[in-house]
Every structure is written in C-alpha cells, then in structure tokens.
Amino acid sequence: MSIDNISIHDFDFNLICEYFSHMERQGPGSPEATLRALSFIEPLTESARIADIGCGTGGQTMTLAQHCPGQITGIDLFTTFIDLFNRNAATLNLQHRVKGVQGDMAALPFAEEELDLIWSEGAIYHIGFEKGVNEWRRFLKKGGYLAVTEASWFTVERPAEIHDFWMDAYPEIDTISRNVAKMEQAGYLPVATFILREECWTDHFYSPQPAVEEIFLRQHAGNPTAEMLVREQRRERVLYDKYKDYYGYVFYIGKKI
Fold first, then answer.
1. Which pLDDT band, with edges at 50, 70 and 90, does 14 fall under?
2. pTM for the full model?
C-alpha cells in the first residue's frame, strides 16, 4: 500500500495511542469551543450525570468539569488514555466527581435514561455519527442533551484530492444539514450547531505535533511503521491547510424529546 492511500485508521491502535498520549488533546478543539457548546445546554445540578464518550486523556473533560456541576464519567477504549485522564483529574483536584473508565462506546456501561448529558469531542466517528446519535439516545433522560463534534463537509462539492482522502478515512462524513437531519430523525431537537474555529486545528492540535513527532520517532528509531504514521500526520496537516474551506469539525448540540 502506498503512503497516498493510507489513513491513520490503517495503523496499529496501540501505536496511535502512544503517539497521541503525548498530547493534551487527541483531536481538534479548544476550551473556548467546549464552553461555547456548554452555553447552549440548560444549567445542570450537582446530581447531574454526565458521560464523555471517547474522552482520551480528558482535555475537554476537565474544562467541562471546571464549568459545570455533576458527576462526570469519561469512557475510552485505551487504558493508557484513562490512566492519564485520572491523573489529570487528580492534579486538578477533580477526582471526587470526575472518573475515567476503560470501555467501548458501542457497549456503554450505563442504564437507560441514566444520563443528563452525553459529551463527545472528535470521537463519535469511531462508531459513526448516525449510529452514535441513535444508540446513545437511550442512555439520556428525556430532556437530556447530546453534544458532539463531527468532521463535516462545508460544501456539497469539493476537490477530488480531499474528497478521496476522507472517503478512505471516514466515508460517513457528511454535510452539516444532513447531520442535523440525522439528529432530528433520531429523536433530538437540534439546539445549535457551530463550526470549530481554525485555531482549534492549528494551535490546539497541529502545532504541538512536531515536538511529539520528535519524541515518538526517537522512541521508535528505525521503525518503518512509526515513521509512516508521522508522515501521515504531516500529510493531514498539509491537506487541512490546503482544503480547510471545504471541511472541518462541527459541534452538534441536541435535546432528547
């Protein structure tokens, strides 16, 4: 397989986990974007139950916990991320109400209608947007909220290079209007959508990566798979800079009805 046809999803997940464990965030986003999304959600109480699905090391979770009450459970498939998540919660003295648990987003450890809020930044693509909004709905109380970010097209047509890249990486990527319709069909009242600002990609996700790459390549000197992973991450940065007018992450906030 040539490098032009490889996406990050073709690599060993443990290698990907190690690479991104060096970063505060495992995907595009920012504290400002998290708080903007939170502003569309009705105030929560101390008894609120919140789940952050695909939480990674908890960059967005800690922001959420510092600005709203309630018990927060972070769910991620990788124990390395969960260990770092719980360490970060303890560092911020949030461990009494913020806990990371290893788990699968396709088999969440919650009872039906247990949660007041489901949060997920840059992770729902692992299960697929349409499947995620449908399957996760049963865990929300009536009137509970879903807030997720999803890679989305900004235009109906786009250059072949970036179209082909995303069709290989994530064929379910869709336009904003079609994703809002999927939320409606799943039984949510769409409350708000907004596009994450460019700095969510550049400053908070891409800029830290050169230093991470240096550490990663040093730890895996001579490993062709590690070198290929770094080349692919660099390629993604080039593609974003070239085609950012055509796609990006979008926050989708919906209320269960």
1. confident
2. 0.93
Name the amino acid, one letter, at 24.
E
Instruction: Please report how the helices 59-67 and 79-91 are oriented relative to each other, as an axis angle in degrees rounded to 10.
Output: 40
On whether the 3-256 domain is CATH 3.40.640.10, my answer is no
Q: Are 5 and 169 in contact (CB under 8 A)?
A: no
Using CA atoms, how far apart are residues 73 and 67, in angstroms rounded to an integer?
Answer: 15
Strands 140-153, 247-256: pairing is antiparallel
pLDDT-derived band at 13 (thresholds 50, 70, 90) equals confident
CA dist 55 and 149 (Å) reads: 12
Place of tokens 């708000």: 192
Hey, is 114 helix, strand or coil? coil
88: exposed, middle or buried (Cβ count in 10 Å: 0-12, 13-18, 19+): buried
Instruction: Read off the tokens for 186.
Output: 């799943």
Q: Give the number of residues written for the chain.
A: 257
- What are the structural domain ranges in the chain? 3-256
